[in-house]
Write a structure and sequence with these properties.
Length: 409
């Protein structure tokens, strides 16, 4: 409140308090209450011990933190002036981040200060963290600069129709071109982004970059879909459909040219809220894909309710399906299920001709993986598009490029 004139300060405080009181009542009466959310997850998993899992407990805390932030940051009108407040929230958990009240609260205050340095939002402490690791604090502090100073870049991996080998789309995969640490892959910084509360800003930045590239491809005679991953945190932002609609109009990309990939786990963290947001996104005309299918809380009830048009089979089932009978059976079952539900299937992790041919015999719709191309930057991808030579078209199996695990999809 330091920057508010005195005549606004008290009324802004009162307005924020009123919203938080309303939110507290909502949390205590709805499934958003942590205890009741935990109970719901327990019923889904039939395993109470799963709630000691870092992702589950921290995920639940972040859901509430996001709601608090949304309540405080919603614009308010005072004497004809439109005010927008910011909030910084620190999250730490017992017993992961301390064995007594003093320890837990102290680390929450450290996390809150880091949230302030990052420009607001929230920061959640990592599991078993009793103090802030210097390298992570430095990296987390750089994240807002990465977004603001265009240090994020996209690599693209093609998706091909299996019936004829046509390139029908690409998945946009974010990398961080850090000024001192070089190229950083998403596994190393996305969890940090989620804990700093900047995931929505990063998501919108990636969407802008991906849609701008899709427009370039369309103008050059290569109209195809672009796929972008949405984190579980993004699905808690009720304004996400509006933001995406604005960006589609700005870049002049038709809604059907965008595919948003979400995971089963992301949906189940707050199923009702996620369903609301996903339904609104689908009503815009964008396609929804269920990513990493088979690795999360696979629920046929939610699968039936989701307005998804595409299922992406996780690479863990695809990589060895030509050698593992169980994996092969799972892949075939998912393909059959998707066909019966009127959905398309994309197989990730296609890394050999043998796997490609096996998927094709199962009537899989689309393939993605190193057998076709590794993820590459926009310039290299555009050159590849002009002459999309890959092993299934012309090369022999012996010519397949070596694979870097950090880049595989």
């Amino acid at each position: 409140m330091e920057t508010l004139p005195n005549q606004f300060e008290r009324r802004a405080v009162d307005g924020s308090k009123s919203r938080l009181v309303e939110l507290e009542a909502e949390l205590s009466q709805s499934h958003d209450n942590l205890g009741r959310l935990a109970s719901q997850l327990d019923r889904v998993n039939q395993d109470l011990e799963r709630l000691t899992n870092y992702d589950s407990l921290t995920g639940l805390a972040i859901v509430v933190a996001q709601k608090v932030a949304n309540a405080v940051e919603a614009p308010m009108q005072i004497d004809g002036h439109r005010l927008v407040l910011g909030v910084s929230i620190g999250i730490s958990l017992y017993p992961d981040n301390g064995m007594d009240e003093k320890g837990v609260v102290s680390l929450a205050l450290v996390a809150m200060e880091e949230a302030k340095r990052s420009g607001g939002g929230f920061v959640a402490c990592a599991p078993d963290q009793s103090k802030a690791p210097a390298s992570q604090v430095i990296l987390a502090g750089d994240i807002r600069d990465a977004i603001d100073q265009n240090e994020l870049i996209l690599h693209y991996q093609p998706k091909v129709a299996m019936k004829d080998g046509r390139v029908i789309g690409a998945e946009a995969l974010v990398r961080w071109n850090h000024p001192h640490q070089g190229l950083i892959y998403p596994d190393s910084f996305i969890p940090l982004v989620e804990r700093t509360g900047l995931i929505n800003s990063l998501t919108l930045t990636v969407l802008d970059m991906a849609l701008a590239q899709a427009r370039i491809w369309q103008d050059s005679g290569n109209p195809m879909s672009i796929s972008v991953n949405l984190s579980s945190r993004a699905l808690h932002d009720a304004r996400l459909p509006e933001h995406i609609s604005e960006r589609l109009r700005f870049h002049n990309v038709p809604p059907e040219g965008l595919i948003l990939e979400i995971t089963e786990t992301a949906i189940m963290i707050d199923a009702d809220k996620a369903m609301e947001v996903v339904t609104s996104l689908s009503e815009l005309g964008v396609d929804i894909a269920i990513d990493d299918f088979g690795t999360g809380y696979s629920s046929l009830a939610y699968l039936r309710r989701l307005p998804a048009r595409e299922i992406k089979i996780d690479r863990s089932f695809v990589l060895n399906m030509h050698k593992n009978v169980d994996d092969k059976t799972i892949v075939r079952s998912v393909i059959d299920l998707a066909h019966n539900l009127g959905m398309k299937v994309v197989a990730e992790g296609v890394e050999s001709r043998e796997i490609y041919d096996l998927l094709k015999s199962m009537d899989c719709y689309c393939a993605q993986g190193y057998y076709i191309s590794r993820p590459v930057d926009d310039e290299e991808f555009s050159c590849w598009l002009d002459d999309p030579v890959w092993e299934g078209q012309a090369l022999s199996a012996a010519q397949t490029p070596a694979m870097a695990p950090a880049e595989r999809t």
